[in-house]
Structure formats: structure tokens, C-alpha cells
Amino acid sequence: MYSLKPRLVLGQALLVICFSIALFLLDSKPGGAGADLEEAPSEGGMSAFHPSTPLRGDINLNLIPYEVADLVLFSHYLTQGDSVLTIDPESQTANSDVNWDGYCWSMADFIHLARVMLHDAVEVVEPTALSEYDMETWMTTVHSQPNDTVVVPVWYDGEGSEPVFGISFKVNFDPDSLSLVAVDFSGTSLENWEGNFTRLEEGSVRLNACPDFMTSFTSDSLTSHNGPRQIAKLIFQVSDVDTPTFISVFFGDDTSSQVQANAFATTDGQLTRLGISDVRNGGIQVGGSLECRRGDINFNALGYEVADAVLFHSFLLQGPGILLLDPALQTCASDVNADGLYWTIADLLYLMRVILHDSPEIPGKGQKNGSLEYLSDELRLISSSAHPGGLVSVPIWMSNATAAWGTTFRLVFDQSALSVEGVQVSGTRTEGWELAHVVTVPGESFFLGYANWPLNDGLYLSIGPGEGVLVKVDFRVDESAPAGAFLPIVFETREDWGHYNAYSDTTGMIFVQPATVSGTIFTDVISGDANSDGIVDVTDVIYLLNYLYKFGMPPAPTSLGDFKHDGEINITDIVALLNYLFRS
Q1: Model pTM?
Q2: Which CATH code is given to the segment(s) 132-286?
């Protein structure tokens, strides 16, 4: 049963008295407490009950709602089911819709009942709307042998959702192959919650959990965060089964109970009830070996789903720590274009095309036939100038022989002298891309950019063959940096994270790794020093000629080329610079 701790023992005693009073009242009322109850269909495979005169919060039907006894009886229902409704199940069910969202016996109802009882919220006097957020729950697929005891972790990712204060979901399994030993919350994000579970029937278990509602709710909530969290561990005993075999462990819906299946709850002022938008089942591979399934990034035995693309994208931005299921097999599955390289921008973009039914899946092992290296292609950091304490937009120049649909690069630098404050795409070759991301930690910056999924005509927005400024990275020079010094910024590859300096062609299949040329920031700003090498000489004249007449790389900042200080760069600046160099 739900563990409400010794302070609720008195409430349990009062429950017996309340039951007696309720029975007396029911006997004295014609038709009983549920005479006016009507049942209406509802979403989610359950029924929403609408009596003509419900008394919300009066779970024990003693006409006094929001008592400790109501909360105790509600908790008994969550953990024991319909058998505890011994007075008038239909009326008790109707009164359990405490937050008036049309769903009965949900965790949101239980939480709000506790809040009203504690005078932390008001009773609901009009219907409330259901809110859905992008939340996921899933189970890990694990490996074992017959007669092993094995742990199957359960995960939750609610990034961007409201704080969560209650969880309720059901898990099914084959009772002939598995027996549930325990549900363990230790070491999980619910370790300090009032976590409990109950066996509903053979082959299934329902998990119910919420914080200790006699303390502050906010101290133990599951808040918005970056990355998933483990919320429970299911401990199974595997039977003496024939091997190899796969035993599925999967989330279930309660069609035989009024408990809202697979739901989260919040205690915000809007009485939001959160439904889980996506569940991914797991299981136990007994004997044999777990198989690498290309495109199955989230390791749920279903490849090429939107969830796979989301997890792939998150991996590029957050790193290997997000791979909580089986990192080795998830990495193997990331080679979507079968070129023998993992976690590349080409893999991500080809995965999207397969999801959109725009390209076929690639069978077989990697042949390194989807990777090209054009010797003429280049990613170059344009050397720039800035005073200590100043900000400069450093252009990243890209020369490409094939059209590019997406690109990545990683820069490393001295964190004591430089920091990245952002990336600009305005006026660059990626200006039309909607999906441009930069992840910056001290001393490192990673850029991931690609066009949005296909336009209405099925075309992909790409960068045609050519050269020009890909993006501009805004660097801040620390005030403590020495003047007149060169601060290096280096392209670097970290292959295990997908941090290649690369681009993908418009098919999303070809991975192109161009040559890279690193650069520097010169901690001084000298008019005429167009190439930021700290010296004004003839190389600056050539630099400006290339910039003006051969569409070459720009000075950074562009004011370095404005030798006449008239607000623009043109041939007169070159003439003035030549006069300065050769005629004093």
C-alpha cells in the first residue's frame, strides 16, 4: 500500500468510522449515493464519470470532503485497486475527479486532494483543461542468462515540461518467463519520494510514486532538465527458458481499472495533468547477443522513428552521457549511411530522410563507401583582431565542391583568454537554415547546423558548391589578455562524440571531411592590417584586392580594411595603403 508514514495511522482509524457513517447515509438515501451517476466516454481508454451532484474529494462518501481519511482511501485505491471501494464504487469514482479534468483516480487528482487537505490549494469549482507536454518514458533492454536476476531500469525525460510531483504507470511482462522480485527506487530520481508498487495481477505491476506531501512539494519535484533521469529499477528473476530468446517488458494501459494509465501530475496553479507523450518498451535478451539495428538509436527495437532522430540530435549537442541504454549498440546503430563512421552529420541527415520515406534503409555492414574527402574543400578560421576586453565576430570560411545540407565543426581555445558569446548566421551562407546550434563550454565550442526538413516541394535547402562565410563566431577577449599577442583557435575532431569538422551532401548520405585551417585573434586593432597578422605590409594589399575583386575572405573586423576611415572599403583604401607603404 501507499506508505503515508506513522502520522496517517490516525487517519486510517478514522476511516473505519467514516465507512460506518457513510453506510448509514447510503442506507437512508433512496437509490444510494450513486443513483444519479452517469458514465460518459473519455480519452485514453478509460471512463470519465459525471454524476449530477458529485462531491469532489469525498472519497469515503461521508459528505465531508478533503479529509485525511479520503486521502488514505485514495492511496489504498492506487495500490490495491477496485476491491477497496466497498461503499458505492461509481459515486466514489466520480468524487475522485478532484481536479475536474474528466479523468478519475489519476495521480493529479491524488496530489490535488493532498494540497486542498493541507490548505495549499483551493477546491476546483469548474472544469479544468488537460495539458500535454513532450515527455517520454522508456525501459532499457538488457542481457542475461537463464535463472539470472536482472535489473531493468526505467527512465523519464521531461525536458521543457512543468515540474512533476506524481507518477503512475503500469508495466507488463510474461509471468512464465519472468517473476518480479522487487521495484527499487534507491539511487534514482525518486529515491526520496513515497515510492510504492503493487502487483495488480499475474504478469503486471503498477508503479505509483509522489513526494512526501507533508513536506514541501517543490523540494522533491522532477523539474525540467537536460537529459533523462532514471526513476525506477525493476528487478526480475529469469526462468529456465530456452536460449536465445527475447522477453518483452512493456508499458500497459489499464482497461480494467479507473487509474489513469501512464500519467504524470503537477501541482502548479493551473492543475495541469501531464500525459506521457511517448513510451518505449524494453526487455531482456536471454542468451545469444544483442543485435545492432541500424537506425534504432533509442534502442527500442524499432528503427527510423522521429524519436531516433531526436536522440541522435541530442547526442551531438550533449555527448555520450545521454546514451543510457546500451552505448555500444546505440553507437553501432548511429552509422545510418553505412560508411563505417559513427555519429556524423551525414548519419543524422540520412536518418531524417529515411524517416520521411525519402530514402531507403541501407542494409549490411559499413563499407566506407559513403565517405568522401575533397582535397580542395576547406574549413578556415579567418584570423581576426580585437583589443583585450573587446568582442569580435570571427568568420568561418567554407569552400565546398558539393552542395551541403548540414555541417559541423569544433573549435578549441585558451579559456583564460577567450570565450564564445554566440554565433551569427545573418549575412552568411547558412542564413536560411532554421536549425543552427552552438554548444559552448570553457575552452570549446561546437557548431551543428542543417537546413529544416524538406520544403513543400520536397527540396532541401542547401549551400551550393562554392566558398564564403559559413557562420560568424562571436569571441570575447578577456581583459587580462596581453596586448599585441596572438590567441590561437584550433579546429579539432572528437570522433566518439560526432564532433567532426565536416559537411554532408544534399542526399544526406555522403560524409565530407574537408581540410581545416586554424587561425588566431590578434589582441590589437591596427588600421590596414587586413589579415590580422600584426603587421601592415603588402600582404594586406593583396588580401584587400582578393576581398574586393575575387570574393575573398573579409577582414575581421571589416574596419581593418577601411584605411581612409570613411565608413566603406573600396579601391581608394588600397591606393591609400599603397601610398602609406611605398611613399610614406
Answers
A1: 0.61
A2: 2.60.40.680
